Amino acid sequence: MQVASSFRRPAFPAIQRATSTSHCYPYKTRPWGSLRMSSWTTVPSNPPVCTLSSLDHLVLTVQSIPATINFYTQILGMAHQSFTSPSDATSTPRHALLFGSQKINLHQTGKEFEPKAARALPGTADLCFLTEEDVGVVLQRLTEKGIEVLESGQVVKRTGARSALRSVYVRDPDGNLIDKEFVEKGRSFKLRTSKSQIDCSKTYRQK
């Protein structure tokens, strides 16, 4: 999961606006100028139902909440939060992992809170996270902790939402793929972990 920041799209000149369902704009006119993986971007011609600005949280269904909390706090430096539903203070306590301005809510498999995803299964996520730490240093720390790093244990180059990335891949206790990205001088880098998939500048697998 990649940390998102709010931004407003610049207005396009009338001559460039779409006249049909969608329209492709040249690289120089699109707002995502830092991303050079393609020379065209499809932009809706009609107003959408709503315009999204950032991601607040996502939900992971896991086999063991304690094991998941341990991995994400001890390996990825997230903070654990316990809370109850604002609509029912007497309900079963819930658990979340906090990082940046986002969080990951945890559901125990077989005991998910409603509503839930149609196919809420452990180990089916692929998340990408951004870090300000050097991905090479992170790779070394993962190795020292005995965590298996995918992609032959190397830092690899990938393409992110805003720029080119350098990543490391690992897996969490459920096998989710984790990719950790490092941003430096306009570049970002990835990391991954082992059972499901989470995308972040580094990728690693816990033994």
Automatic annotation (TrEMBL):
Recorded superkingdom: Eukaryota
In what residue span(s) does the VOC domain sit?
54-183
One Pfam family from the record: Glyoxalase
Do you know which InterPro entries this protein is assigned to?
Glyas_Bleomycin-R_OHBP_Dase, Glyas_Fos-R_dOase_dom, GlyoxalaseI/FosfomycinResist, VOC_core
Q: Which family does it belong to?
A: Belongs to the glyoxalase I family.
Quote the protein name from its UniProt record: VOC domain-containing protein
Q: Source taxonomy lineage?
A: Eukaryota, Fungi, Dikarya, Ascomycota, Pezizomycotina
